# Entry
Amino acid sequence: MKIIAVCGMGIGTSVLLKLNAEKVLRMLDIEATVEAADMATARAASFDAQIVLTTPELVESLKGINAEIIAIDHFFDLEELNSKLSKALL
# Structure
């Protein structure tokens, strides 16, 4: 499984989201590759991703890609990530 964490530039928020998503996936005992990306890279790479994690502000810009888009409000809230990833994956 492939998950892409997306922010505008691909170097800040997406990296934090990637690291926390990896923590949650370990807690859920789910194997997945998580990549941090900017918008352009995410749109190109999404063809083989199952899930895209991003900020609520970027959801509209990502519509139309071939992956489930999940908006994360609080990047440091592992419970939010756990809840939303569990719902999508289990």
